[in-house]
Structure formats: C-alpha cells, structure tokens
Write a structure and sequence with these properties.
By secondary structure, this protein is mostly beta strands. It is built from 1 helix and 11 strands.
C-alpha cells in the first residue's frame, strides 16, 4: 500500500512538471509562456460528489455473492497544479446493505485523490484514481441491537475512474465518471460505480 501511494505521488509530480512545460517555449535561454490557461486554473479546488455503485459483489468462502447496490457521498479538497493535474485528499461515506438484508454496512474511506484532465477545454475527458483506507461499521436492522452501530474493522480502498467534465470560466465544473471501487474488508467487495460531482 505504501509503495502504491509513493508511485502515485511520484507520477503526479512528473505529470505536473511535464504539463507545465507544454505551455512554455525556450527562446535564447529564457522561458516564454505561449498563452494563458483557457478553462483550467491553478490553486485550491474542492469537489463534492454522489456515487452509486451497482452489481456490488462480495467474495467469501462460498464464492461470489451478488449484493444490493450501494450509494455514497464524497468531499475532496486539494490543489490544481495546472489545467491538467489535480491532487487532493478525500473523505466519503458509502452505504451498503448486507446480503441477508438484516444489517447495513457503512464504509468511510479516507484517501489520496489524483485526477489527470486530458484537455484544457470546456469539455475534457479525465482519468482519476483514489487510494487509501476505509473504516467499516455496521448497523443492525432488527433484534436487540437494532439501530445500533458496531465497529467491524478497516479496509484498504482503491478506485479507478474514467469520465468527462464540463468546465466554466470561473473555475467551477461538473463531472460524470464511471469507476471500479475495491474494498478488502477482509472480504473482497467491488462493483461498477457512477459518480456525479461538482468542483469549485
């Protein structure tokens, strides 16, 4: 896990340096900017998103068990190095009913967020990755413990996403992406997710 985060951060630094150089010319030992950013910005950014994951699947001793979909919200705060590269930290709350419908699991991932926006245009495709740790609690829906929360443990968490965003001149944007989250809790949980977000 530490090795993965180190590689992710190193990749972010490399891409940032590379994309910054795309907008500059070297002439007689001086650096001259070609043009200002059109839609991207440099500086703080925030993102709030809603995620719906369908075909949730758990892997245990009995094999793959198809479960109900889960849904969640995420808040990300970070820094835009240029119109192409965003790096931040996110926190989410994802809700997943169990297969026997008597409990509800809540996963709360804390993660490093990396997004590469391919174009500095109003509409741009992007690639995004999340990697971190998720705390897991569950709530009984029936019996003596009904309504009470119990700690179940922790899980590594990753999510790879491909999507598109519509950006505005004031730095705000809306995005729509499709991803594949992975939880190890210690059962393997995965699915296909749809993410709708707003960036400011």
């Amino acid at each position: 896990m530490k090795r993965f985060l180190t590689i992710l951060i190193a990749l972010a630094v490399f891409v940032s340096a590379y994309t910054n150089n795309l907008g500059a010319n070297c002439e007689n030992g001086t650096v001259k900017q070609k043009k200002a950013y059109r839609y991207g910005k440099k500086g703080y950014f925030g993102n709030a998103s809603f995620t719906f994951t369908d075909f949730g699947a758990f892997l245990d001793d009995e094999g793959w068990l198809i479960d109900k979909p889960h849904y969640g919200v995420d808040i990300i705060n970070g820094y835009s190095f240029n119109p192409y590269l965003d790096l931040g930290v996110g926190l989410g709350a994802h809700f997943q009913p169990s297969k026997d419908k008597t409990e509800q699991y809540i996963m709360m991932p804390l993660y490093v967020y990396f997004r590469y926006n391919i174009l500095d245009r109003k509409v741009s495709p992007y690639l995004a990755a999340k990697a971190g740790w998720a705390g897991v609690v569950y709530r009984e829906k029936s019996g003596e413990q009904a309504g009470k929360f119990n700690k179940w443990g922790g899980s590594t968490y990753t999510n790879l996403e491909l999507g598109a965003m519509v950006r505005f001149k004031d730095g705000k944007a809306i995005n729509l992406g499709v991803g594949m989250p992975w939880y190890f809790i210690p059962l393997l949980a995965t699915g296909i997710s749809v993410n709708v977000g707003f960036t400011w």
